[in-house]
Design brief:
The complex is a heterodimer of chains A (293) and B (257). By secondary structure, chain A is of the alpha/beta class. Chain A has nine helices and twelve strands. The radius of gyration of chain A is 18 Å and the shape is globular. Chain B is mainly alpha-helical and 257 residues long. Helix content of chain B is 51%, strand content 7%. In chain B, a hairpin with a 6-residue loop joins strand 2 and strand 3. The radius of gyration of chain B is 24 Å and the shape is elongated. The chains are: A alpha/beta (293), B mainly alpha (257). At the A-B interface, strand 5, strand 6 and helix 4 of A face helix 1, helix 3 and helix 4 of B.
């Protein structure tokens, strides 16, 4: 692991308007901050970026509208704006989602599942490679919370994701609450899903809590504490690899900021203990060092 | 290669969740270049209740965005009429509109679309067009204020050019003044004041609020309008208006001019 950072498991918080001041006031208590760059386009919130840059704190740039899965050429102008934001802070990773947010000139406005086919994997891989060519930072792709599944798939989600990772060499931003919600909503075993994915590609992790709606769907709303099953999944992942960055996502229904800091501390503890157990069991280092650089 | 066609069809099914189903589905599917397997996929997506739920959820979010952002217009336009115009008339022709542009594009639609004009002429007061135009300008101005690109031209007596001038057909400043009167403790809505909105051509100046990403509005005279426009264009106005002290106080005009 690089000696640049003074921690083994960097854990931090995602920027949200409701906690912006606390983030700045208590920067020393997190190892990193994640930003959605679209919130900072066109010079918006520049004073926050400047203060964050001055702190030198590692920043993860997490896009939401690049629509990498759209079977059309990469949105170069959108990527330009992402790179502009990334260039203003101490960026350590750039990421977006394995999904589409628009297609054929139609704006969906939300992270929408792709067909799990080889052709779709080819299309998204082309866009990821185009994006990676344009940036000096590691790039990661995130698994999304599924609202539905495109029928008649050739591959499972895990196979489709693994194929994209292999084709591109990019990293995986593993969102464990998305996985938990998908397992709940579509009735599968999240541990089997983890077993089907090359976890050595995991560079970073998202933790969050959601709510169950009137129809019993678990919604990834980032509105509640990280639930026990997600902590269990983190321990499982931590027993196999050492993700460099873990982010606690909370974008609504904000608790006192100290509660988010407690979840960040818990993430470090869970990952540290899991790695310790793995080392004890193996008599050696954790299997993979994680893909983060 | 019709993978992109399947995606385009799916995007439309989500964006317009009440369209392209039932009897309309055959015509919808025929719009895309799909092989039999892809057509089967699109038909299955159209019938999937999760896709419908997702689309309705996103449509609901767009409606909430409008209801939360069009605060001024909604003082004079019922939420039901707004929803009807949004879902029934605006959305089918606005599938390319992003969340960030939704409110200004919708206001533009209400101002210019003949079908919307006909509905509003029945359902809203005659001065609503002024309200819509003012709110649209306020929103655009607020968006642009976040971008640092408002320098005054060399030699100008202006400090910056971060202002907008809007001409109205009714005395909206007077209406706004009445609306901003105290309405009760803790922000509770009080009785709407009895208002007499006068049909009188007025010109308002929008300038940045000193601390918020918002604007302040001032009723200005023709001489001030001419001065600001001339100075902002890089030419020198022949005469400084009597309102100069107020412009200085706004931070718009250099002191001692």
């Amino acid at each position: 692991m690089s000696s640049v950072y003074q921690f083994e498991y960097g854990a931090g918080v995602e920027w949200a308007e409701g906690i912006e001041e606390e983030i700045l006031d208590r920067l020393s208590e997190v190892d990193c901050v994640e930003l959605i760059p679209e919130n900072f386009f066109f010079g918006r919130r520049r004073s926050f970026l400047k203060r964050l840059a001055a702190s030198g704190k590692p920043v993860l740039i997490h896009g939401v509208e690049l629509s990498l899965g759209t079977a059309e050429p990469l949105k170069e102008d959108h990527l330009d704006r992402i790179l502009e934001v990334a260039g203003e802070v101490n960026t350590v990773e750039v990421s977006d989602h394995l999904c589409m947010t628009e297609a054929g000139g139609v704006e969906i406005g939300q992270l929408t599942p792709l067909a799990w086919t080889r052709r779709s994997a080819d299309a998204v891989a082309r866009n990821i490679e185009s994006a990676m060519e344009r940036m000096p930072w590691p790039f990661a792709i995130e698994n999304i919370a599924l609202r539905f599944v495109v029928p008649f798939a050739e591959l499972s989600e895990a196979e489709h994701l693994s194929l994209v990772l292999r084709k591109t060499g990019c990293h995986l931003l593993l969102d464990l609450h998305n996985l938990h919600a998908n397992a709940h909503n579509f009735g599968f075993d999240p541990h089997a899903w983890l077993s089907a994915v090359d976890l050595s590609r995991v560079s970073s992790i998202h933790l969050a809590g959601g709510h169950v709606d009137d129809e019993g769907t678990l919604v990834d709303s980032h509105s509640h504490p990280v639930p026990p099953r997600v902590w269990d999944l983190l321990a499982r992942v931590g027993s196999e690899v050492s993700p460099r960055w873990t982010i606690v996502e909370r974008t609504e229904n904000f608790p006192p900021y100290s509660e988010l800091l407690a979840e960040i501390a818990e993430a470090r503890r869970v990952l540290g203990e899991a790695a310790g157990r793995a080392r004890g069991a193996n008599g050696a280092g954790v299997a993979a060092e994680g893909a983060g650089t | 290669m019709s993978h992109s066609q399947v995606q385009a069809a799916l995007a439309l099914l989500i964006r317009l969740p009440e369209h392209h189903r039932g009897a309309e589905l055959d015509a919808f599917v025929a719009r895309f270049a799909l092989d039999p397997e892809e057509e089967r996929t699109v038909r299955a997506l159209a019938a999937d209740p999760r896709v419908v739920k997702y689309g309705r959820s996103m449509a609901g979010v767009r409606g909430e965005v409008l209801r939360s952002q069009l605060r001024l217009s909604l003082r004079f336009l019922s939420p039901e009429v707004l929803d009807c115009l949004h879902r029934g008339l605006f959305e089918p022709d606005a599938v390319d509109v992003r969340f960030g542009d939704l409110s200004t594009r919708f206001l533009e639609f209400l101002i210019t679309d003949p079908r919307a004009r006909r509905v509003l002429s029945r359902e809203a007061p005659p001065f609503l067009t002024d309200i819509l135009r003012l709110e649209r300008e306020q929103m655009r101005f607020r968006q642009e204020l976040s971008v640092e690109r408002w320098p005054a031209p060399p030699g100008s007596r202006l400090v910056h050019t971060a202002f907008r001038i809007v001409s109205l057909d009714y005395d909206i400043p007077r209406l706004m003044e009445a609306l901003s009167a105290p309405v009760g403790d803790e922000g509770e809505e009080g009785e709407e004041p009895e208002l007499l909105v006068v049909a009188r051509r007025v010109t308002v100046l929008l300038v940045p609020h000193p601390s918020l990403p918002a604007s302040r509005m001032f009723d200005i005279d023709a001489e001030t309008v001419a001065f600001l426009r001339t100075e902002a264009s890089g030419r020198r106005a022949s005469r400084v208006p009597d309102t100069a002290p107020v412009l200085v106080e706004m931070g718009l005009l250099r002191e001692g001019v």
